[in-house]
Specification:
The protein is of the alpha+beta class and 789 residues long. It is 20% helix and 32% strand. Strands 3-2-4-9-6-7 form a 6-stranded antiparallel sheet, covered by helices on one side. α4 runs parallel beside α5 and α14 runs parallel beside α15. The chain is globular, with a radius of gyration of 28 Å.
Length: 789
């Protein structure tokens, strides 16, 4: 039976004439950090101090020992970052140039010193650029010229830390006669029967041995012979239970066990979990344009999504538990779709396993982002090799529902001045409209493919046309107020967002000793967006009086504005289902401590936006919206059951006076949206009034004026603390109350974010990780809006 032995022991990293202990999997930066050679690049401005690391060549070494008894021994690297030469006792075994694929070398009977020499990614990328010619990109770094995680070279939320190393496991595989080289599972549902068709490729040590494969799924067992080097075995599971996205049903998973046999002798095995479900992408034309709706098991979905970036700029540090923690946070926020963005990586199976188990749908980008990518060799062969390997590797996962060719490159070609600069040179179109759809159609015909995001489906239309396909809404953040989201109803909003700084405790850890200010040196270093602070300031000025040098107030208001901006978009777009079939917020997570669009910061702390997503992505959402005929309460019901009840509408003054009131019945069909008109007498008049809509324990608010114009009363409230619960009781209107739990203790977490209380109302906030509860400390950590502030 094939035996796999992890190759983790005895590795050293050569640095300045000395050997440092090395961890595999890992990277040069993490090894240098562990050895005390470099400072933590996440702290202060140390990122700049370690820039030299990415410019150097590096060497890893260990001892390889021959294993007796097997006919064949293979050295397998499941991830090398990125350009490397592998030598055994100084004799080359081979070269690599792709972070996104694995490599295998025959080392049968051989022992000696194993060396992996890494060339600087800069050296390789710049050499390819010199040979193939300059291509335009969103950033000046040479990331389009090699197959490496693009955001290693920096992004508008990420540091420039260009890595090298053995970033995924290395192992030795010992086998005889034959091994399973590849298994391609085609999973389908046919008239209630689950079908798993396994297409198997084998590798032999020699010709002639009769082989068979045996597969077991759901209590069914089937055997088939191997013809040459291939076999196909089909297993049918009667009355298979369907796998559903979270919120639509359960996620039953079936173990698939495949054994390669020589007579009765097992030679190798392969096991995965699969789920039975159907998925298609409805892009049919209608009166509004061209739709973009995911359909799972025949159910049309409004996708409640987030964009995912690598959770650490050093991805070898992200393991099974960290994936599960972050994805559990996503699921707990009501998310049902995670888009793996194209400037990162194909994540490890631990990521997709967690999505399978929790019902999180995965939209997988191929790793191309914000640049023109050459299509000549040596890149083209690498692109095809990585695509073939990763499509097959990820096929078993039922959570994976969409392959996407790239991020923003089709849009960039048309809108960012690329076309005249390229003057006919290749730029990636052949990948997105040719190579990649061909690979997906050949290997994984069970899933849909789309050429890019955004993409309108045809060059006959603008690539980012809101009426066709996927749309990225960035003009709002870059140039306008978030109220501009209300001007359009795109068919599917695949990117939009608003920035805010990370939690206060995250800033204090990342910038120790610094007197914090929006423009202090460390804050500016941890703000990577072009004119990011300027856009934050302009966004605040449209709604709030200036914080006037009060950093704590600035920090709170930017958090409020981020949550408000995202809420404005999601509430509007959800209320227009089914014309709009999804929102994918940019972004869920961060890869280091930074001011960014994330809902969860680089230390894993939830921003107020995270808690707001829990409200926005709940099955049931009441929202007050302006329609051409007037103000309405839209009752968005994504649950399967009818939502009916009585809505209470109250027109109120900010001093707590009730101006007008009405109750009316409503009925919102399952997976539907109902509207209740707001009569003219209940519409707020001027900045001193607002509208409250309460339905079934849920609330919608409408303040018709910017906060800077609202004469809020001085907020008055009482605070009590007991058993880890902070209870706030309002004596006046208290708008956007926020308990910043990390100001109580760095480990403290609150179970809710922004909340608005009417006079006499109370809210109880659960706090965990707070060792010394104290009412005065709780009051000091509470923030809310005030007139003039």
């Amino acid at each position: 039976m094939l035996e796999a032995t992890p190759l983790t022991e005895g590795w050293v990293l050569h640095h300045e004439g000395a050997d440092l202990p090395a961890v595999v999997p890992g990277c040069v930066h993490t090894d240098l950090l562990a050895a005390g050679v470099i400072p933590d690049p996440f702290v202060g401005r140390a990122e700049s101090e370690v820039a030299w690391v990415g410019r150097r060549a590096w060497s890893y070494r260990t001892t390889l020992r021959a294993a007796p008894g097997a006919e064949r021994t293979d050295l397998v690297f499941t991830g090398l970052d990125t350009v490397a030469e592998i030598l055994l006792d100084g004799v080359p075994l081979g070269r690599t140039r792709n972070m996104h694929r694995s490599y295998r070398f025959d080392v049968t009977g051989r022992s000696g010193e194993l060396t992996v020499r890494f060339t600087s990614a800069y050296t390789e990328a710049e050499a390819v650029r010199a040979r193939l010619g300059e291509r335009p990109a969103a950033y000046p770094e040479p990331y389009p010229y090699l197959r490496k995680m693009a955001c290693s070279f920096g992004w508008d939320w990420g540091p420039t830390l260009v890595t090298a190393g053995i970033w995924r496991p290395a192992l030795l595989e010992h086998w005889s006669t034959a091994r399973i080289a590849r298994v391609r599972p085609l999973v389908s549902v046919e008239d209630g029967t689950g079908v798993v068709e396994l297409r198997v490729d084998v590798e032999r040590t020699g010709a002639g041995a009769p082989l068979a494969v045996e597969a077991a799924v759901g209590g069914q067992r089937v055997r088939a012979g191997v013809e040459g080097d291939t076999a196909t075995v089909r297993v049918e599971v009667p009355d298979a239970r369907l796998w559903w996205p979270r919120g639509y049903g359960e996620q039953p998973l079936y173990d698939v066990e495949l054994t390669l046999l020589h007579g009765r002798e097992p030679l190798d095995g392969w096991s995965r979990r699969v789920g039975f479900r159907t998925v298609r992408l409805d892009t049919s034309a209608d009166a509004r344009g061209t739709g973009f709706t995911l359909v799972v098991n025949g159910e049309r979905l409004f996708a409640r999504g987030v964009n995912w970036i690598p959770d650490d700029v050093f991805p070898s540090r992200v393991g099974r538990e960290r994936y599960r923690t972050r994805l559990r946070q996503a699921a707990d926020a009501g998310v049902d779709l995670v888009r793996v963005w194209g400037g990162g990586i194909y994540e490890s199976d631990d990521f997709y396993d967690a999505c399978d188990e929790s019902g999180l749908l995965v939209w997988q980008d191929f790793p191309f982002a914000c640049a023109a990518y050459p299509e000549e060799q040596p890149l083209r062969a690498e692109v095809e090799a990585e695509a073939r390997e990763n499509v097959v590797r990820l096929m078993p996962h039922p959570s994976l529902v969409l392959w996407n060719g790239n991020n923003e490159n089709l849009w960039g070609f048309r809108d960012w001045g690329w076309e005249p600069r390229l003057a006919g040179e290749s730029w990636g179109e052949g990948y997105y409209l040719g190579l990649l759809p061909r690979v997906v159609a050949e290997l994984d015909p069970t899933r849909p493919y789309t050429a890019g995001s955004p993409w309108s489906g045809s060059w006959d239309r603008h690539p980012n046309h809101p009426d066709h396909g996927t749309h990225h809404s960035w003009e709002v953040w870059n140039r306008a107020d978030y109220t501009e989201y209300l001007r359009e109803v795109p068919r599917f909003v695949a990117e939009f967002g608003w920035q805010a700084p990370p939690a206060y405790a995250t800033l204090r850890r990342a910038l120790p000793g610094e007197e914090l200010a929006p423009d202090s040196p460390g804050m500016l270093h941890h703000q990577k967006a072009d004119d990011g602070n300027g856009k934050l300031a302009r966004g605040l000025a449209r709604h709030f009086p200036p914080p006037d040098g009060d950093f704590d107030r600035w920090h709170y208001l930017t958090q409020v504005n981020q949550a408000r901006a995202v809420a404005a978009g999601i509430e509007h777009w959800r209320s227009h289902w089914p014309a709009c079939a999804g929102t994918v917020v940019w972004q869920l997570n961060d890869c280091w401590p930074v001011t960014s669009w994330a809902a969860i910061d680089g230390d894993g702390r939830e921003k107020p936006l995270y808690h707001e997503l829990r409200r926005l992505y709940a099955d049931r959402l009441p929202t007050l919206q302006l329609r051409p005929h007037g103000l309405v309460l839209a009752l968005v019901n994504q649950a399967a059951e009818m939502w009916s009840g009585v809505v209470r509408l109250r027109r109120m003054a900010v001093d707590g006076t009730l101006v007008g009131e009405r109750e009316t019945a409503f009925r919102a069909a399952g997976r539907g949206v109902a509207e209740v008109s707001v009569e003219s007498g209940l519409v707020p008049a001027g900045a001193a009034e607002f509208l409250v809509a309460d339905a079934d324990g849920l609330r919608a608010l409408r303040f018709p004026a910017p906060d800077r114009e609202i004469p809020y009363p001085r907020p008055e409230f009482d605070v009590t603390v007991a058993d880890g619960l902070v209870t706030v009781t309002a004596r006046t209107l208290v708008r956007d109350l926020l308990l910043q739990a990390d100001r109580l203790h760095p480990a403290a977490r609150a179970d809710r974010g922004l909340v608005t209380l009417l006079p006499g109302e109370a809210v109880t906030i659960g706090v965990r990780g707070w060792p010394d509860p104290d009412p005065d400390a709780a009051r000091a950590a509470l923030y809310c809006l005030e007139s003039g502030r």
